[in-house]
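Our consortium's second objective concerns turning raw sequence data into structural hypotheses that experimental partners can test. To show how far this objective has progressed, the report includes one record in full. It was chosen at random from the queue rather than selected for favorable results. The single chain below, 251 residues long, was entered without modification.
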Amino acid sequence: MHQTILARASKSADVIEANPLRFIRSSSSSLAPQIIKELEEVFGAPVIESYGMTEAAHQMASNPLPPGKRKPGTVGIAAGPEVGVIDGAGNLVPAGATGEIAIRGPNVMSGYENNPKANAEAFSNGWFRTGDQGVMDEEGYVTITGRLKEIINRGGEKISPREVDEVLMDHPAVQQCVTFALPHEKLGEDVAAAVVLREGAQAGEKDLREFAAKRLADFKVPRKIIILPEIPKGATGKTQRIGLAQKLGLA
């Protein structure tokens, strides 16, 4: 939604100027730093990234409003339940270490109804596992590095789709990018990306791959980049990495 608004903002400069915003809020998937920068430049208002899920009666973490400290690329500090990062055994990992984001507290649900299997998988040592991979810094700011189910396993090398997204989004011709797993006979999975170009901009697959190759390790560079007028959305209107290869006829 933020990217769509930005794409149309140049045609509504008078409306934006006449209706100043106090702040812009974003939740769910992390915003690329490029989108945050552009939103703040266009609207002259701070972007407040936050993090929530239904199982926590929604809000879990948020960047503070000014004059509080905001860290672009993070979803902020705990804002409701206790937030931690745990390992596979359900133990907290130290600041700066990557693990699974977990929550606990009175506003976190006690379990899924009539689904003991899901409950067994979702709870560890009193923590509810969110299914999101992330890291917490020494000040308690959480960065989501990707959905665990969306991490690309290329012959044993684990690749965060978001990292590739952010590199391609730095290309001046790219308006939107979604990196996803492409089935591969020998490696299991390879890296692919779907890209929407800015209006009037031009770039080919080779241009984008060469751009990415200067900023990413070779195994992270997308082997396939598809340029589309629009990236397919799921039933809820969100872009979904899982199953995108099938939707695009690549699997």
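The partners drew two points from this record. The first helix runs from residue 2 to 9. The longest strand covers residues 174-184. Both points have been shared with the crystallography group to help prioritize constructs.
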